[in-house]
Amino acid sequence: MIVDITSWKHVFKLDPDKTLSDEHLERICTSGTHGIIVGGSTGVTYDNTVDLLARIRQFEVPCVLEVSHRDAIVPGFDLYLIPVVLNSKDPKWIVGQHAEVLKEYGAIMDWEEVLAEGYVILNPDSDAARLTNAETTVDVQDVEAYARIAEHLFHMPIFYIEYSGTFGDMELVRQMRRTLRNTQLFYGGGIDNQEKAQAAAAAADTIVVGNIVYDDLDAALQTLYVVGLERKQYV
Ligand code: 1GP
């Protein structure tokens, strides 16, 4: 399946390390969302990633893997998103792990299926920030510099403002939308109701809805209203 992420307004992010019933997975996959990102910060393995992919593949929704660990690179996804944590203090999360993987698989990679994501992780209390040793004490000018690095220096297709677990500063997100020209702005973090989805969708190109899927499925499905994607039988 050819996936055009530039048309994505709304995606769900599903974590292979978390449990979702078949019924809930079906409601997510047939909700009308533009895509499913499979990814997580901890506990992601080859086996739990294969398992989740196989379950999602019963449905027609595009499904992409956000690669978080070299051992969990599973064939069969529509696309592979490769995070580059621009505000990490450890080069391992910027190019280190990437180089390790490419030493092994570089010659056989299908680059048509790979997209780099320039990440800025801003919630210091998130697993993602702790894991990647992200410098979260940054201001708008810092984040703007990262956005320009992503777009103009590295020509990355995606700039991802990540507040995983908490709802972020929408004025900052809006400012990054004004700064970026062609690079697509993803926002994720703390979208757990329609109002927050609306605010985030007004600020970013693509909103990513994660944890609430596991905590309150009906609330998760309500986030589709803002982009006109809801399928009425589910909400
Ligand atoms: C996490 O950006 C996503 O990578 C979504 O965040 O889980 O807080 O919705 P939440």
From TrEMBL:
GO terms for molecular function: heptaprenylglyceryl phosphate synthase activity; magnesium ion binding. Mg(2+) binds at residues 15, 41. One of its GO terms (biological process) is glycerophospholipid biosynthetic process. Keywords: Lipid biosynthesis, Lipid metabolism, Magnesium, Metal-binding, Phospholipid biosynthesis, Phospholipid metabolism, Transferase. It holds the Pfam family PcrB. Its EC number is 2.5.1.n9. The keyword Magnesium applies. The keyword Magnesium applies. Sn-glycerol 1-phosphate binds at residues 13, 160-165, 190, 210-211. Its cofactor is Mg(2+). Prenyltransferase that catalyzes in vivo the transfer of the heptaprenyl moiety of heptaprenyl pyrophosphate (HepPP; 35 carbon atoms) to the C3 hydroxyl of sn-glycerol-1-phosphate (G1P), producing heptaprenylglyceryl phosphate (HepGP). This reaction is an ether-bond-formation step in the biosynthesis of archaea-type G1P-based membrane lipids found in Bacillales. Belongs to the GGGP/HepGP synthase family. Group I subfamily. Homodimer. This is Heptaprenylglyceryl phosphate synthase. It comes from Paenibacillus albiflavus.
